[in-house]
Every structure is written in C-alpha cells, then in structure tokens.
TrEMBL record:
Membrane disposition: Multi-pass membrane protein
One protein family per Pfam: Bax1-I
Protein name: Membrane protein
Keywords per UniProt: Membrane, Transmembrane, Transmembrane helix
Localization per record: Membrane
Phylogenetic lineage: Bacteria, Pseudomonadati, Bacteroidota, Bacteroidia, Bacteroidales
Homology family: Belongs to the BI1 family.
Primary subcellular site in the record, as a coarse category: membrane
InterPro entries assigned: Bax_inhibitor_1-related
Annotated coiled-coil segments of the chain: none
Top-level division of the source organism's lineage: Bacteria
Amino acid sequence: MNSDYSVSDYQSKLAQSTLIKNVYLWMTAALAITGITAMAVSNSYAMQQLIFGSRFMFLGLIIAELALVWYVSARIQSLSFTTATGLFMLYSFINGLTLSVIFLAYTTTSIASTFFVTAGTFGAMSLYGYFTKKDLTSLGNLLFMLLIGLIIATVVNIFWANSTLYWITTYAGIFIFVGLTAYDTQKIKRLLNGQEITEESQKMALLGALSLYLDFINLFLYLLRIFGDRK
C-alpha cells in the first residue's frame, strides 16, 4: 500500500510539474507573439496608418482585447482546450498590435532594457509565490481592491492630466502587479495541485498562463514609464 501511495504521489507531482511548466510555456509563447507583432507594426508605416490612423480602429482593437479576456475567463469550462488556446494566442496578437505604439514613443534600447528588468522582477516574484509557505490570499484580496482603485484613478487622469497622479498610479501599478505576480503564481500552484493531465486541467493551466501574461505586460508598461526614454 505504501508503495502504491508513493507511485501515485510521484505521478501526481509529475503531472503538477508538467502543468506548471506548460503555464510558463504558454505565457512565453504569448509574450513572443505580442513582441514580434509589435515590432512588425513599428516597422510598417502602412500598418501604423491602419491601426493609429483611425480612432475607431484603435478603440475597436482595445474593445476586442477586453472582450477576448472576458470571454476566455468566463467561458473556459465550456470551451475546448484547442479553442481556448487559439483565443489566447489571438488576444496576444491583438495586444501586440495595440502595444506597437510603445515603439513609436520610446527608444528601442530603453524598451529592451525595461523588458529585462521586468523579466527579472517577474521571475523573482513568481519564484517567491511558488515556494513561499505564507498564504498570500489576503494579499491578493487587497491587491484586487487596489487594482480597482488604480483603474478608476487612471481613467480620471485621462481627463485631468495631472502629473502627480500620473506618477502615483505608476508606482502603485508596479506595486500591485509585483504583488499579483506572487499571488497568482501561488494560486496557480494550488489550483493544479493533485490534478491529472486532462483537457480540464490544461484549460486551468492555460487560464493561469493568461493571468501571468497580464501581470507581466502590465508590470512592463508601468516600469516603462520610469525607465523608458522617449524619442
């Protein structure tokens, strides 16, 4: 019986390890699609005119992004794994179209250096979230409330254009997404604990990859406000 339990425990840990690895592989693939797409648009005047030449086109892409995130998150259980993966990759592609604007606003060197700062910060906090014994649930709840406040303040500042509020939201955004990286990592680890590799568990891992992808992108954008050199 002990031998059977050991084998079962080993298989469970192996399955969890595989699913966790897939989380980061899917996240990395999505980041690569976003980055390649953004760079391609930044090197194409025709694409820039298509995306940024019309306010309705750019707004439509933003709405499409929000709709895709909501749809995948809300309907993940009813979607097939293949469909969910395709929608995630589609989202990362559209996000690359809209994020190409940063290549028009900031120097390539500062974008690259900020990316590496983001990767290092994200990696450190994700490792902390994975290995810490501390329950981060209360932190996650606090960060979620702060995120709502951040969104409201950001929208208000679009019309107010206050430089002080701009920098407050910048540092608050960094703090929030640094914390969410650790929280989401721990949440994903617990969610995948004891799971076998099935279509359902892979969809759970894919949703985790989407969460970490969003943490990374948002952390990068807020850090770029500080480290980015404008053209």
